[in-house]
């Protein structure tokens, strides 16, 4: 394994940057690393400047370059039974490096940064770009602005975006999208014996959740399936519900949180529109009993688009060649690849490590996976030179 990659990964893992928190500590380290190598960069801050994505170009200002993209945030460790310090990269001598984010996805970022000196020495004919975002783990919040900033900052136009989510270096051409919502029902309080004359928010939430489940089943029955994914359909699920104060009191307030994980054939926004139509129908009925009844739905974050990269696109052939894998994969988790694709870049997911190790205690990346990540980027450098 390239010694430098482990050293860089050790630094990256040491920064406990959770999704939703400031990532400037890790961005500052990456900035210093780029400055040390004489590479200029651009920051894409959030509204209050507490977070930022970073991107830079290595090589000539010519069309047809390749973006290497990853996210700097990780998921929390609280409540997990770690056997080592999650924010200290640990080598237990078993061919694995343990630490939060080692796999998802600081391992890929470390591979990129470790290969920077080779990129600078190479006579690149087309450029490489680093693009590292914030808040991917809480809704891919930095992805849109990062992809748009790359389009707006450079005179030339990159052609490809490789998002290095852990895929065991398998070219991954599809990902599900995601939308997360909270729906709140405002009804009328009263004695439980008066259930037919009051508006129970708990009962109404149950009705809405059942509609969502039926909507999921209707999509499947209508043939909206994609066997590349497991499960092969759009899932709609409610995981949290809160309401009521006592068994004998009609609840005047209840809310539930629900998510949609959509295959490329379906659209979160369309499902939400259908849900809103049903909500309006229910409000009309409820207001006959209680004129102030209302149902309000808010987004937890903007929907993240799915990815569906056609096999005939040249990025697929290129990544197959560089990875040595002819197999094409899909994943059921959301990532920033769909955002880059909608901004006009041919996009694909391909990175070291296994998603099976992500988000759990004793997360690790195998050293031989880092070797594969380094080899992939080195081949890419040669291809662009």
Any idea how many domains?
A: 2
SS element count, helices: 10
The computed structural class is alpha+beta
What radius of gyration results from the CA coordinates?
24 Å
CATH superfamily of the largest domain: Zn peptidases
Strand arrangement within the widest β-sheet reads 1-2-6-3-7-17
Order of helices and strands: HHEEEEEHHEHEEEEHEEEHEEHEHEEH
CATH topology of the largest domain: Aminopeptidase
- The helical percent reads 25-40%
Largest sheet: 6 strands, mixed
Q: What's the N-to-C terminus distance?
A: 23 Å
CATH class descriptor of the largest domain? Alpha Beta
CATH architecture of the largest domain: 3-Layer(aba) Sandwich
Strand runs, count: 18
Averaged pLDDT: 97
The rough form would be described as: elongated
Strand percent estimate: 15-25%
Residue runs with pLDDT of under 50 for 5 or more positions: none
Structural summary, described in words:
This protein has two domains: 3-175 and 306-384, Aminopeptidase; 177-303, Alpha-Beta Plaits, CATH 3.30.70. The protein is 32% helix and 24% strand. The chain starts with a helix and ends with a helix. Strand 1 and strand 2 form a beta hairpin. The radius of gyration is 24 Å and the shape is elongated. It has ten helices and 18 strands. A six-stranded mixed beta sheet has the order 1-2-6-3-7-17, with helices on both faces. A four-stranded antiparallel beta sheet has the order 11-13-9-14, covered by helices on one side. Strands 4-5-18 form a three-stranded antiparallel beta sheet. The chain has 385 residues and is an alpha+beta fold.
């Amino acid at each position: 394994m390239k010694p430098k990659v482990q050293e860089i990964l050790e630094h990256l893992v040491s920064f406990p940057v959770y999704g939703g928190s400031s990532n400037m500590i890790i961005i500052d380290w990456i900035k210093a690393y780029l400055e040390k190598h004489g590479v200029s960069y651009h920051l894409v801050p959030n509204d209050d400047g507490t977070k930022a994505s970073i991107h830079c170009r290595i090589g000539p200002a010519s069309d047809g370059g390749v973006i290497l993209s990853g996210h700097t945030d990780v998921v929390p460790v609280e409540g997990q039974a770690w056997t080592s310090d999650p924010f200290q990269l640990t080598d237990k001598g078993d061919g694995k490096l343990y630490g939060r984010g080692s796999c998802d996805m600081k391992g890929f970022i470390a591979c990129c940064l470790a290969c920077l000196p080779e990129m600078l020495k190479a006579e690149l004919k087309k450029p490489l770009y680093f693009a590292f975002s914030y808040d991917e783990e809480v809704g891919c919040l930095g992805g849109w602005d990062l992809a748009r900033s790359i389009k707006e900052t450079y005179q030339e136009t990159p052609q490809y975006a490789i998002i290095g989510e852990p895929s065991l270096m398998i070219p991954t051409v599809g990902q599900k999208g995601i939308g997360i919502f909270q729906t709140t029902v405002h009804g009328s309080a009263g004695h439980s014996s008066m259930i037919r004359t009051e508006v129970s928010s708990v009962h109404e939430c149950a009705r809405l959740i059942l509609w969502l489940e039926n909507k999921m089943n209707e999509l499947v029955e209508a043939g909206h399936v994609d066997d590349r994914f497991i499960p092969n359909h759009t899932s709609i699920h409610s995981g949290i519900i809160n309401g009521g104060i006592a068994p004998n009191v009609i609840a005047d307030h209840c809310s539930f949180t629900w998510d949609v994980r959509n295959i490329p054939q379906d659209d979160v926004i369309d499902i939400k529109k259908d849900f809103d139509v049903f909500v309006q129908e229910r409000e009309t009925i409820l207001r006959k009993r209680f004129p102030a009844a209302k149902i309000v739905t808010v987004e937890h974050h903007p929907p993240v688009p799915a990815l569906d990269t056609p096999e005939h696109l040249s990025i697929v052939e290129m990544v197959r060649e560089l990875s040595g894998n002819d197999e094409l994969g899909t994943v059921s988790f959301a990532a920033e690849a769909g955002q880059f694709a909608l901004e006009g870049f041919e996009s694909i997911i391909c990175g070291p490590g296994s998603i099976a190790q992500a988000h759990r205690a004793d997360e690790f990346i195998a050293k031989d996976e880092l070797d594969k990540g380094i080899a992939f980027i080195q081949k890419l450098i040669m291809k662009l030179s």
